[in-house]
Amino acid sequence: MVARWEADCIRWQNAPNKKLHVYIVSADGGALEEVSHGERGECFPTWSRDGASLFFGDLSDSPAIYRLNLKTHQITTMNGSQGMWWPRLSPDNNYIAALSVNTYHLMLFDVKAQKWTELTQTRALHPFWSHDGKYVYFDSTVGGELAFYRLPITDHKPERVASLKDVKRIASGGVPSWTGLAPDDSPLALRDISTFEIYALDWQLP
After folding, report:
1. pLDDT tens for residues 59-115?
2. Same domain as 163, residue 126
3. Are residues 47 and 118 in the same domain?
4. Separation CA 147–CA 163 (nearest Å)
5. Within this chain, do residues 102 and 201 fall inside the same structural domain, yes or no?
6. What is the pTM of this model?
7. For the domain that residue 112 is a member of, what is the CATH number?
8. Angle at CA of residue 112, ends 107 and 116, nearest 5°
9. What CA–CA distances, in Å, run from 21 to 37, 81, 170, 190?
C-alpha cells in the first residue's frame, strides 16, 4: 500500500480477487472509507493542495490518470493522460508529473495549458516534487548508472543528485524500492539490509 498525508491519510490496498481502490482514513485513526469504485486498478493517489480532490493512476488494460472530487465523488479523466500513471501533483497545483506506462518516461502536464511534455527519454521511477515546486526528483539510469536526479521545470535538464549504485534495494514487479525526499529536500532511499543464504535440508519422515 502507499500512503499520502493531507488532513487525512490516503492509501490504496489490495484484497484477494479484488481491484486496487483508494481509501481515506482520519489521521487520528478510525474506519477506512472507500472513496472510489469501479473496475479500475487504482494506484499512487496524490492530494490536491486544498484537500478537496485526489488524483490517481490506473493499472487496468486502459491506463490513465483520474481526478476524484471528494465532495461529489465524481471521477474525471485528465486530458490526454491515456497511457500514463504514477501522478504527482506539484505543491502549487499547476503541474502534474507522471510516468508513461510502456516506457516509464517522465511526463509533465501543465494544468493551465492542458498540455503534456515529455521530460526524459530514459526510464524514470518514483517521481517526487521538491517542496518549493521547482524540481521533479526521480531515480533513473540516465548516465548508465542508477542515481537520484532532479529536473527543473524551467529548462528540463536533469541534474544528478546522488549515486544509488551501492544502495542495495528490493525490486517488486521489476520496480526498485522507494525513493523520496526529506523535509529539507535531501534524498531518501529504502535500503535492503537483509541477507540471503542457500540451505540444504535432510528431511527424515517417521
Report:
1. 778 899 999 998 998 999 999 999 999 999 999 999 999 999 999 999 999 999 999
2. yes
3. no
4. 4
5. yes
6. 0.81
7. 2.120.10.30
8. 20
9. 7, 19, 24, 25
- Of 98, 144, 96, nearest to 122 by C-alpha is 144
Q: Are residues 89 and 73 in the same domain?
A: no
* End-to-end C-alpha distance for the chain, whole angstroms: 43
Q: Is the domain of 128 the same as that of 89? A: yes
Q: Residue 181 is placed in which grid cell?
A: 525526499
3-state DSSP call for residue 161? strand
Report DSSP letters for 58-116, one per residue: E-SSS---EEEETTT--EEEPTT-TTEEEEEE-TTSSEEEEEETTT--EEEEETTTTEE
Query: Do 110 and 202 fall within a single domain?
Result: yes
- Tell me what pLDDT residue 1 has: 47
130 and 205, same domain (yes or no): yes
Q: What's the whole-number mean pLDDT along residues 124-143?
A: 92
Q: Is 63 in the same domain as 151?
A: no
Q: What is the pLDDT of residues 109-122, one digit of tens each?
A: 999 999 999 999 99
